[in-house]
Design goal:
Length: 453
């Protein structure tokens, strides 16, 4: 009686296992019970349960390995398949085991090891191998189908043990051997997509343009508009006032919109959109105001430079007018026109430098100009490199002191140099040579010297 109870419980457990693990497509008829299905399969081969599934193979198209490793993997895998086809199960098992160690994320060697285990009748070992394979890749449908076959065979064995009190007859199942590789396909596609996106980002980055020429154009425009600076200053003041009024109005509207948002619950999303737009407009107005204030400050600074330059010219003119005509002829002091011409010459030189225009910059020097360390050609090459390897260059000159010499004139001034790599202010002197009978505006630089930093 006790043995009958144990057998009945075992049969119930086996039937539950079959319904849980056996694939729906394996059912022979809806009218058959799970026990009849297991019995039919157990009697199909004189008490043995069997199945036949295809072997696994690896596709050479995987993009996760380099060419050499991919070729090596395919060669070793195909060698193991040939051993399996020749019936050399132990040698094939050894090679597939090595593949699982060297390439753990490929599922096919795991599946084929389980297939070998089923050929040897080691169903429990096959189940362990397949469960281990799920850790490598649990998205392969054939893997789960093979596990279901093993579970079905194990259920048949349990059923036979429950029915027979004598020697337990072993249930046998042969697992399919997969011959195609699909486990890495989706991952390979994602890797290719990421590589493509990276290349697109690098292309867009390489096509980005620099803004140095726009800065140079702005400098030239501001230089041309210095005469009308006073009118522009008033215009900027008016614009700043208007922007401040607009800013206050925008803040008021923004506060009103936020209050309305609290009151109107049904239109809360619309109110949030309006507030977001108002905040964006407010930020734009603040940025515009900051930009105009900075522009106004820069124009004021340039205006101060112009006024200092005008004061220098006026002082020279006053001193020249105070002299007796005979003293003016004998004196070597430059006239107001000469002072202006000399200062304009220095400004033209600084503008060419700021514009990074090598030809215009070099044209301000004597044709045979060189330094004590560099020949004419070496000096030109050096200036070409230093003018063109910067994203931008800005040179401002002020505080001029002009003096006449026997061969021309000298100009001492303060130079403020700024680029993306350096910001420096020094006192410099340029010596200009003027040919006999020519105006100072035709002077060429014969020497330059840094007086102090």
């Amino acid at each position: 009686m006790g043995n009958l109870s144990i057998k009945f419980v075992a049969v119930v457990l086996v039937i539950g296992l079959v319904f849980w693990f056996w694939p729906a497509s394996e059912s022979t008829s809806p009218s058959l019970s799970a026990a009849e299905i297991i019995t039919d399969q157990a009697e199909a081969s004189s008490g043995a349960v069997s199945g036949d599934l295809p072997m696994a193979s690896i596709s050479p198209s995987s993009s996760l390995l380099n060419q050499r490793d991919s070729d090596q993997l395919l060669a070793e895998f195909n060698s193991a398949i040939r051993l399996l086809d020749q019936g050399k199960l132990d040698e094939a098992e050894q090679q597939f085991t090595q593949l699982t160690v060297k390439y753990p994320h490929f599922v096919e060697p795991h599946i084929n090891l389980a297939a070998i285990a089923t050929k040897k009748g080691e169903l429990e070992q096959a189940r362990k191998l397949l469960l281990l394979a799920t850790k490598a890749n649990d998205s392969t449908a054939q893997l789960f189908e093979s596990i279901n076959h093993v579970h079905g065979a194990l259920a048949a064995q349990a059923y036979q043990r429950a029915l027979e009190s004598g020697e337990i007859e072993k249930a046998v199942v042969e697992l399919p051997v997969t011959r195609t590789l699909t486990t890495d396909f989706e991952l390979a596609q994602r890797v290719d997509t990421l590589e493509s996106e990276l290349q697109n980002q690098e292309t867009r980055l390489a096509n980005d343009t620099e803004s140095s020429k726009e800065i140079a154009n702005l400098k030239r425009t501001l230089a041309q508009e210095r005469v009308t600076f006073s009118a522009r200053e008033n215009e900027f003041k008016a614009r700043v006032s208007d922007l401040q009024v607009a800013l206050q109005e925008s803040q008021r509207v923004n506060q009103a919109a936020e209050s309305e948002q609290v009151q109107i619950v049904s239109d809360s999303q619309t109110d949030r959109d309006i507030i977001a737009k108002l905040r964006i407009e407010l930020a734009n107005l603040e940025n515009t105001l900051d930009g105009n204030i900075q522009e106004l400050a820069r124009l004021k600074s340039e205006n101060q430079d112009l006024r200092r330059e005008l004061a220098t010219v006026e002082q020279v003119a006053i001193a020249s007018n105070a002299q007796d005509p005979q003293e003016q002829v004998a004196s070597s002091a430059p006239s107001a026109a000469q002072v202006k011409a000399a200062i304009d010459r220095v400004r033209s030189w600084a503008l060419s430098w700021s514009n990074q225009d090598l030809d215009s910059y070099v044209s301000h020097y004597l044709p045979n100009y060189s330094t004590s360390q560099l020949s004419r050609k070496a000096w030109v090459d050096q200036r070409r490199t230093r003018l063109t390897n910067k994203r931008f260059i800005q040179v401002r000159v002020s505080d001029f002191d002009v003096a006449a010499t026997e061969s021309g004139y000298t100009v001492t001034f303060r130079q403020h140099y700024r680029s993306n790599t350096l910001d420096d202010t020094i006192t410099k002197r340029l010596d200009f040579r003027v040919n006999d009978g020519q105006a100072w505006s035709s002077g060429k630089i014969s020497a330059e010297q840094i007086i102090r930093r």
